[in-house]
Write a structure and sequence with these properties.
This protein is of the alpha+beta class. The chain is built from 4 helices and 6 strands.
C-alpha cells in the first residue's frame, strides 16, 4: 500500500515500516491472542521520495512528534488489524500533507500611526487621572 500524500507526492510502501502488537481495551479473549494494534513508522531522513526542502520543512514542523527523525503513529481503535492499518495510513498522510502545506502569509510589521499613539496615551492619562481622583486627600 503506497502512501498518497498529493497527486505529485506518493511515498512507496517500501519506505514505511509496520509494527504490530496486542491492543488494550475491549475485545475479550481475542485481545489476548491477536496483534490488532498497528504502528506505522516513516523515516524522513532516509526517504528517497522527499527532496531536501521537504525534509527540512517536515523536521521543523514536526519536531515535537519525531523520534529519531521518524514519524511514529499508533492506532488501536478497531478490533481488526486491517481497519487499524487503513486508519494509520489516512492519519499519517494527513499529518505529512498538512505539514507540507504553505503556511499563511507572514504579517508585515508596521509602525503604529501617530493618531493611534496619541489615542493610547490619552486613554492612559484619563485612566491615571481617574485613579488619582479616587485617592484620599489629606
Amino acid at each position: 500500500m503506497d502512501l498518497i500524500i498529493t497527486s505529485r507526492l506518493v511515498i512507496p510502501s517500501r519506505e514505511l515500516k509496520w509494527r504490530f502488537s496486542r491492543s488494550s481495551g475491549p475485545g475479550g479473549q481475542k485481545v489476548n491472542k491477536t496483534n490488532t494494534r498497528v504502528e506505522i513508522i516513516f523515516n524522513i531522513e532516509e526517504s528517497k521520495v522527499l527532496n531536501d526542502y521537504q525534509k527540512k520543512v517536515l523536521t521543523k514542523k514536526l519536531k515535537t512528534k519525531l523520534v529519531n527523525n521518524c514519524i511514529c503513529l499508533a492506532v488501536q481503535e478497531e478490533r481488526n488489524q486491517l481497519l487499524n492499518r487503513q486508519i494509520a495510513i489516512i492519519r499519517i498522510s494527513s499529518v505529512i500533507r498538512n505539514s507540507l502545506k504553505n503556511s499563511s502569509k507572514v504579517r508585515k510589521a508596521t509602525k503604529p500611526s501617530k493618531a493611534s499613539q496619541n489615542r493610547r496615551l490619552d486613554s492612559k492619562k484619563k485612566r491615571g487621572e481617574l485613579k488619582k481622583n479616587r485617592q484620599r486627600k489629606y
